[in-house]
Amino acid sequence: MREKERKFPYFYKLLIALAVFAFVFIYAMVSGAAETTFSDVWKALFTDESGGKLSILREIRFPRELAAIFVGAGLSAAGAIMQGMTRNPLADPGLLGLTAGANAALALTLAFIPGANYFVIMGACFAGAAAGAMMVMAIGASQKGGFSPFRIVLAGAAVSAFLFAIAEGLSIYFKLSKDVSMWTAGGMAGTTWTQLQLVIPSITVGILIAILLSKQLTILSLSEEVAVGLGQRTGQIKAILFIVIIILTGAAVALAGNMAFAGLMVPHIVRWIVGTDYRYILPMSAIGGAVFMLLADTAARLINAPYETPVAAVISILGLPFFLYIVHKGGRAFT
Fold first, then answer.
1. Do 153 and 326 meet the contact criterion of CB atoms below 8 Å apart?
2. What percent of the chain is modeled with pLDDT above 90?
3. How many CA atoms lie within 13 A of 276 on its CB side?
4. How far apart are CA 290 and CA 200, in angstroms?
5. Is the alpha carbon torsion for 104, 80, 138, 124 positive or negative?
6. What is the spatial distance between Cα 132 and Cα 170, in angstroms, rounded to a whole number?
7. Sequence-distant (≥ 6) Cβ neighbours of residue 236 within 8 angstroms
8. Residues 164, 75, 80, CA angle at the centre, nearest 5°?
């Protein structure tokens, strides 16, 4: 991998990733039920001209694609952090109880605070994500010998099933099935600028903090003993990174609902491209996650146009085989 990196520096890989991101973003903006062109996209983004197509692009498609970008970036960065911090190749916000906890908190909020605004819903999703993750970690550490990758995954599956059952029970009892299912199905349809004003800063700050701690995360991903030997305050760093994961996951789930596997696949692909240094993994994971979610959302719109396929279904179709492949390879993809 080091020889490959010397032949093709990270800077050029980053430029290529940004170019791919720009191309996919333009393709996503042009594609849809309403026929639009690159010229329409340019006018909608960079001029004050008005018109039916331009209004569709500005008020419907552009917020939706921004949502896909930041949800994908947030979940992929959270997955990369989790995999590095726990040294668990199967770690993912959707597999370790975070998204299930956020969904359960969402159902509780809709049931007992019917008039809750989006800020309250986001706060509830943050709290639910934290509760779900802590339940999984507590169960995973309850056995002698501490954490193991597969024990945590099993704990995540059990906790996720429990929390999803709570959300489903509340939705049935309080007749909220339609409202809750719109979130749990996952999707960026109907995203508003008000929602983005809360989500974009949260995810941006979370990713920036993670990048600032990327060197410490790289050391932590190798061995906790090595990190302590190098004078690293592992407890403090883990606490900050855990908060970052909650922010990234909570904001993404509050906007788009349950997106299992989104944070699992991209970090593995990125590590294959850039190596094991999290100074490179985290920025590339954010870009890769944005590209992946843009493609998934666009596919969901086009597969059965003019009807929409749930984005979560598209991601799961790709994610489950990938998950099984990683398990088969013993946690190492593309080796």
1. no
2. 32
3. 14
4. 13
5. negative
6. 17
7. none
8. 115
Q: Rounded to whole angstroms, how far apart are CA atoms 153 and 136?
A: 9
Burial (CB count within 10 angstroms: exposed 0-12, middle 13-18, buried 19+), residue 294:
buried
* pLDDT tens, residue by residue, 139-182: 877 766 555 666 777 888 889 889 989 988 988 888 887 777 76
Sequence letter at residue 237: I
Q: Angle, nearest 10°, between helix axes 10-30 and 262-274?
A: 140
Confidence at residue 1, expressed as pLDDT on a 0 to 100 scale = 47
Can you say whether the dihedral through the CA atoms of 277, 209, 128, 312 is positive or negative? negative
Q: What is the DSSP letter of 329?
A: T
Distance between CA atoms of 100 and 156, rounded to whole angstroms?
Answer: 9
**Helix 118-140 to helix 149-173 angle, to the nearest 10 degrees?**
140
CA distance 188 to 199: 12
- The tens digit of pLDDT for each residue in 61-120 reads 999 999 999 999 999 999 999 899 888 888 888 777 888 898 889 889 988 988 888 888
Q: Which helix (H) or strand (E) holds 125?
A: helix 118-140
Name the residue among 161, 171, 166 with its Cα closest to residue 139: 161
Among 140, 75, 14, residue whose Cα is nearest residue 315:
75
CA distance 200 to 194: 10
At position 283, the amino acid (one-letter code) is: P
Q: Which two tokens stand for residue 235?
A: 């407890």
